[in-house]
Write a structure and sequence with these properties.
Shape: elongated
Number of domains: 2
Distance between the termini: 21 Å
Order of helices and strands: HHHHHH
Strand content: under 5%
Number of strands: 0
Amino acid sequence: MAKDKLFLEAEIKLYSYSRNKIEVDNITSELKYIESKYQHQGYCSFPGESAINYSDVKVSKTNSNAPIETWLLYHDKEYDILLGKKSKLRNQINKIDNALKILSETELEIIKLRYFNPIPWDNVSSKVGYSKGHCKSLRVKAINKIKSLI
């Protein structure tokens, strides 16, 4: 049976799932580092932090002590890039998590074993108690169920 384009794309996304979760954690660490760098220097508060004191703000570009002005002038573009990348990865992870809810327990187990922490088909079949051929068949059925959702 030939695999269609959506099927192959779904497999790629499933294989990337664990790596994407790690990448989100790494990006989160990097964002916290960037935030601490600016907060330590007194430039600005980030979302979820205490509010910015607007009494310190001056409209002149020459006032280097204004927290908002400094943030806007020297804002780290990498921060925005990382936020966008994190958002995209989290969206992909969430799509997969949601799609997996429609699978049977056995289908879910096979997908997790084969894609999230890839192990050989012999090990997958022994863990779920079915033949290797049946496990491969259940995998195809599972991916066909979720391929349009992820």
